[in-house]
Specification:
The complex is a heterodimer of chains A (761) and B (83). Chain A is an alpha+beta fold and 761 residues long. In chain A, 27% of the residues lie in helices and 24% in strands. In chain A, β13 (232-236), α7 and β14 form a beta-alpha-beta unit. The model of chain A has no long low-confidence stretch (mean pLDDT 96). Chain B has a single domain, classed as Ubiquitin-like (UB roll), CATH 3.10.20.30. The radius of gyration of chain B is 12 Å and the shape is globular. The chains are: A alpha+beta (761), B alpha+beta (83). The A-B interface holds A 90, 92, 95-98, 169-172, 183, 185-189, 271, 274-275, 309, 335, 337, 342-347, 349-350, 362, 365, 367, 374-378, 381-382, 422-427, 462, 609, 611-612 and B 5, 7-9, 12, 18, 47-48, 52, 54-59, 61-62, 73, 75-83.
Chain lengths: 761, 83
């Protein structure tokens, strides 16, 4: 385990971190040379295709693949029967907790298809067209069952049951016998009834949000080659090569050393590529066919069978005194898990009131299965929907109390030493600083026109540590190579190089960052949980410090002095004694040139479980204009203020803030899965699933607050997830003020807003 | 002695206590002490939970060998899970 052990990063002067070099992988990406998941090919490669269930809920009586196998060019067909039974156990190492048995059944259905698009068979053939034709010739005998398509339907007394043998777990009272409730949990402290009795104002509201997708541009893609010995090499676009290896090995019933995963470049993930879909299918097809197999999802398949995050129903109640002090809070959070248990409701429970001091609090969370795709992590899983409820209720409290919405939040904001509503005390955090920065920002004072409104909202995310490995090796000319195991989604190569450059004292352009496969670097958890710059960065710093120690030892050897007599300053070994005896400083390049004569190549290593991840807090401001005739909402101005601890590469920190806001605005205004009565998604494409494009958005302004995380050598805290937490509420609060309406459901689409305007008239 | 806090969902297992002080050098000893006092507690905690030790949230399975200080504050939390 590793942390910072009391060093004070805020006191340091930095030479390289905090600068904005061009990313090392940038040129290849903008010139089309970078290879993404679908770009790989091998000699003799076959094309894979997945047959998916046309029903949202159906028992699979029989699958006959005879006609498919008889088709010329078909080399292999697999169904759920080709896979071993997988025991129930925690699926560790991803961004969120899952169950291996569920994961295996989500990869390919066995006895039951649980959502429209659930994989039921897969084919490998010499061309994509033959594979597609073969899928049509697979005869599946279904017993079609009534689907469960909403939380209300799932919780109804006579609801069809998805998993007949499953029983609800958690805290009583729990449903007795079979139900669609996977779990029910409670947490809280204090005396909630007394807290509400002490309040001068109490606001209670309910909100519903739809299932939405992460919307990464690159569809899932995998190429698998299985050798004569059964060992598989897998190229795929993933946020976690080690998780693909571990999960695929479990699903296939083989040991991890039988699978090597080479992560390709990745075109977005946002949590949705922390799990597996086609990887075990491609491996097994390759094993059966004896040839490499490539499997690429279409956009439609991405929507129907990967990703989304939960549809939710949230009720929040808050009480406050006349002067704006919160006295009690209560939240009931009901989250769709999709077809298998494991919604992000527990994270929602812990984040819902996390930014605020509340002595009396009660939180209840329900995880509910429905006949929709199994949800996967999506940027701060569970938190944006919870924040929508709390932050809009706070806004209403501010209005009723006649208080400035930022002042109300400042009055109740958590800071170092305060006990979080989910339990432990906060260490150094920067929430108050984000509120003050937002309040003093010119945006907050700018005048508004007719039908315009300004929304304020805040957000919290824990940020993760987890396990990482790093190698730093010195080239013969004094340049360096940094090897880690985290696929680079948001510019992490540049951040790793900057941290290594800072420690080694050489220009960042002389450091080459590399993303390695599962056999070229030690175990590393996913690129997710806002952990890479924090945790893998910590490993890089330790590995670079290992290199520096070796370089000092080489200099000590050359100068015939003890190691302690040699320091490291600005990329050079220096003799610390006042009497130099003619020993001029030795640069890294000079020491590298002598490496063969002083002990051999210089390689630093580190492997750690990072402790001390600092929570992230943000305050967002949003201005909108509402067209009262059409119900259209235009976002006029947006400012995201967030504590980064220390921004290693400020451009990529700003990019994270802007990306989270763009996704959050889409979630607030346009995005939703629309299902017909039989559970078929009706808008499985970007034309009908309306994500915001550049022309829909204003320039998103950013303010980086830096309250260093004392547990990281460079003061880093994660920044990737917090920015998506406030926008749902910031947009909603702005629209409510602009249109003088109360809203209870996302997205705030034109028809829904018109309805609210009509209701309020 | 380390102080252990129980959120409302767990209090039924510990006779309604909001917190308890216990002698324990690490999390394994702490769970054993709690299980001795409240039989079945350790199993109930299981994999579905995480443990916060002095503000550091650690998944249950990774926390067993974590050292505790006499002034340590421990909270049992739901595991941050799901997607």
């Amino acid at each position: 385990m590793s942390g910072n052990d009391g060093r004070t990063p805020s006191d340091k002067k930095w030479k390289y971190i905090g600068t904005r070099p061009i990313r090392h992988d940038g040129l290849d990406k903008v010139t089309g040379r970078a290879q993404f998941g679908a770009d790989y090919a091998l000699p003799g490669m076959l094309w894979g295709k997945v047959l998916r269930s046309p029903h949202a809920h159906a028992r699979i009586r029989k699958i006959d693949v005879t006609a498919a196998l008889a088709l010329d060019g078909v080399k292999a067909v697999i169904t759920g029967r080709d896979f071993p039974n997988v025991a129930s156990e925690a699926a560790e190492g991803g961004e969120g907790a899952g169950d291996m048995a569920d994961l295996a059944m989500n990869v390919i259905a066995r006895d039951k298809a649980l959502y429209h698009g659930h994989a039921v068979a897969a084919v490998a053939a010499t061309t994509a067209r033959i594979a597609e034709e073969a899928c049509k010739r697979i005869a599946v005998d279904y017993e079609v069952l009534k689907p469960v398509l909403s939380l209300d339907e799932a919780l109804a007394k006579d609801a069809p049951i998805l998993h007949e043998n499953a029983r609800a777990t958690g805290h009583e009272p729990l449903p007795k016998g079979p139900s669609n409730v996977a779990s029910r949990r409670e947490m809280g402290r204090g005396d909630v009834a007394k807290g509400f009795a002490d309040a001068d104002v109490v606001v209670e509201r309910e909100f519903r949000t739809p299932m939405v997708h992460q919307g990464y541009i690159e569809p899932h893609a995998v190429l698998a080659r299985t050798g004569q010995d059964g060992r598989a090499v897998v190229w795929c676009c993933t946020q976690g090569a080690f998780q693909v290896r571990a999960y695929s090995a479990k699903v296939l019933g083989v040991s991890t050393d039988m699978i090597k995963v080479i992560p390709t470049e990745i075109g977005g993930g946002f949590g949705g590529k922390t799990t597996i879909y086609g990887e075990p299918l491609a491996i097994l097809l390759s094993r059966k066919a004896g040839r490499p197999v490539k499997l690429v999802m279409s956009r439609e398949e991405v929507f129907r069978a990967s990703g989304p995050t939960s549809g939710t129903h949230v009720r929040v109640k808050l009480g406050a005194t006349r002067d704006g002090k919160l006295t009690a809070g209560e939240a009931v959070l009901v989250y769709e898990a999709g077809a298998f248990k494991g919604s992000p409701v527990t994270a929602a429970m812990m984040t819902v009131f996390a930014p605020y001091k509340l002595a009396n609090v009660r939180i209840e969370g329900w995880d509910v299965v429905v006949n929709k795709p199994k949800v996967t992590a999506y940027r701060a899983p569970g938190a944006p929907m919870a924040a929508l409820a709390v932050e809009t209720v706070l806004d209403e409290l501010a209005e009723q109390l006649g208080l400035d919405p930022i002042d109300l939040r400042l009055e109740n904001a958590v800071h170092e030493g305060v006990q979080a509503t989910y339990g432990p005390k906060y260490r150094a955090i920067g929430f108050v600083e984000t509120l003050r920065a937002a309040k003093s920002h010119p945006h907050y004072k700018a005048p508004l026109g007719p039908n315009q409104g300004r929304g304020v909202a805040c957000g919290f995310w824990f940020n993760a540590g987890m396990s990482s490995s790093a190698n730093v090796s010195i080239n013969e000319d004094g340049s360096a190579v940094v090897v880690t195991g985290n696929p680079d989604i948001g510019g992490s190569r540049a951040s790793m190089a900057l941290m290594a450059a800072e420690e080694l004292g050489i220009p960042v352009e002389s450091v080459r960052p590399v993303v390695a496969d599962t056999e070229a670097i030690g175990y590393t958890d996913v690129t997710g949980g806002s952990r890479v710059t924090f945790a893998t960065g910590m490993a890089v710093i330790e590995a670079a410090r290992d290199v520096v120690r070796q370089l000092r030892a080489r200099a000590a050897q050359i100068w015939s002095v003890e190691l302690d007599a040699v320091g490291w300053e600005d990329g050079r070994a220096v003799l610390l004694a006042e009497e130099k005896n003619g020993h001029e400083p030795l640069s890294l390049a000079q020491l590298a040139a002598k490496a063969a004569n002083t002990g051999g190549p210089i390689v630093g290593r580190a492997a750690l479980t990072a402790r001390g991840a600092g929570p992230g807090f943000a305050t967002h401001l949003c201005d909108v204009e509402v067209d009262r005739e059409t119900g259209a909402v235009k976002v006029l101005r947006y400012t995201a203020v967030q504590d980064a601890g220390k921004a290693i590469h400020p451009s990529y920190v700003e990019g994270q803030y802007q990306g989270g806001v763009a996704q959050g605005i889409g979630w607030a205004l346009n995005e939703e899965y629309i299902f017909d009565k039989s559970g078929v998604m009706e808008n499985a494409g970007f034309l009908d699933y309306r994500m915001p494009v550049a022309s829909d958005l204003p320039m998103i302004d950013t303010v980086i607050v830096e309250v260093p995380n004392p547990m990281h050598p460079h003061g880093v805290r994660g920044v990737g997830e917090t920015p998506i937490v406030p926008p749902l509420a910031a947009v909603t609060n702005a629209v409510q003020r602009a249109a003088r309406v109360k809203l209870a459901e996302l997205p705030i689409s034109p028809p829904r807003l018109l309805e609210a305007i009509d209701r309020s008239a | 002695m380390a102080r252990v806090f129980f959120s409302s969902g767990l209090r039924r297992q510990v006779g309604g206590a909001e917190s308890l002080e216990l002698e324990a050098n690490d999390v394994r000893e702490l769970l054993a002490a709690l299980d001795a006092k409240f039989p079945g507690f350790a199993a109930q905690i299981g994999e579905a939970n995480a443990i916060a030790i002095d503000g550091e949230i650690i998944p249950h399975g990774e926390a067993l060998f974590e050292r505790l200080r006499p002034e340590s504050e421990i909270h049992f939390l739901p595991k941050i899970g799901g997607g």
